[in-house]
Amino acid sequence: MKKTKIFGLERNVFFTGLTSFFTDTSTKMVYSVMPLFLMSIGASKTTISMIEGIAESTASLLKALSGFWSDKIGKNKPFMIIGYGMTALITPFYALARFPIHILLLRFIERIGKGVRTAPRDSLISGSINKNETGKNFGFHKAMDNSGAIIGPFLAFAILYFFPLNYELIFVLAGIPALIGVITIVVFIKEAKSEKKSSVRWTSFKNLPKKFWFFLFIIFIFSLGNSTDALLLVKTSETGVDNMYIPFIYMIFNVISVFLAVPVGILSDKIGREKMLIPAFLIYSIVYFLFGSFNSLNIFLMLFLLYGFYSALSDGSQKAMVSDLVSKDLKGTGFGIYHAVLGFSLLPASLIAGLLYDHVDSSAPFYFGSIMSLIAALMMLGFMIIYKTKKVA
């Protein structure tokens, strides 16, 4: 593959970032109003959490399967086309939903699309770059992803401003940027893999290093307290703010994440991923503790800013760490298992958070998330100590 750079980035990295920008513009238009829409058709907080958890977790097996098969056949691009295409196809149909079960079905199908595309996409990025720039490139991808997460909620806010409570219009229009994202893949992205890996079998899981599995266990512990951002939006809406401003508030943390993602990624290349993830988990713990302790719009606005700092520190660093820990011929498999762990943990996390919110009080799920994140930070510190003092495969 010819190494053509755009703005100092590999061609595949740039256009994969552009694809994520358009797709996240679409999905965050929908996501930023989905809790409000679900409550308007009779959903409880538990139902909102369960819809997210079931959709993510049930489809998460595909994240491991698609990563494995992309390694097996030596191709990433077909999985990306299918996965992003499913999101573009499903998005406008949210406008036809009249009961929470309809949203569950559509979210499940749409998340299957994400399950198909995510690991091969990350594998394509990893296979297109130099190892000493992993953090920088995944930081750029996260910045583009979150740029879409800025534009999407802003567009949703603008639509609600001119067409109050017209959630259906948002869902229909959200299909347009999703379609542009698919076209970007088809036209501009080149395959990064060159040959089939006939040696890749299910037993290849045993070839993944022990420290990779330890890292995944830490991510699982953290993710049990990281249910869904929808509860942050629900808690914010309970301060009395007009619903049309909720997408705008959700946009705040994405702005911070966009500006910091690339610098943080470059820094992680220099000092190590662990030194990014430990403060990230601590910041998350503080944010969730304060969300549980207060019910003030002004405080929540400040917390969303801090939450953006956590996002910049965490998301790109986690993927870069997976890339560092896994050998080249198992990149897709490694990313697939990583994303599967995130997906599988979301169902119990969402169930716990929803039940705590509805049956204990609105602070309980945030205190729980704070505790789990603090535990993950301590475990990551242990990881850093163990694998800096001795090399264990």
Brief write-up:
This protein is 77% helix and 1% strand. It has 393 residues and is mainly alpha-helical.
* CA radius of gyration: 20 Å
Main sheet properties = 2 strands, antiparallel
> Low-confidence parts lasting 5 or more residues at pLDDT below 50?
389-393
Please give the CATH architecture.
Answer: Up-down Bundle
The computed structural class is mainly alpha
Series of H and E elements: EEHHHHHHHHHHHHHHHH
Helix count, DSSP H or I runs of 4 or more residues: 16
The H-level CATH homologous superfamily, spelled out, is MFS general substrate transporter like domains
CA(first)-CA(last) distance: 32 Å
* Helical residue percent band: over 70%
C-alpha geometry = globular
SS strand fraction: under 5%
Number of domains: 1
Mean pLDDT: 89
CATH topology: Growth Hormone, Chain: A
Which strand order does the major sheet show? 1-2
CATH class value: Mainly Alpha
**What is the count of β-strands?**
2
Q: What does this protein structure show overall?
A:
The structure is a single chain. The chain is mainly α. It contains 16 helices and two strands. The protein has helices at residues 11-31, 34-40, 45-59, 61-73, 77-90, 100-127, 134-162, 167-173, 175-188, 210-224, 230-237, 246-271, 274-293, 297-325, 331-359, 364-389, and strands at residues 5-6, 9-10. Strands 1-2 form a two-stranded antiparallel ribbon.
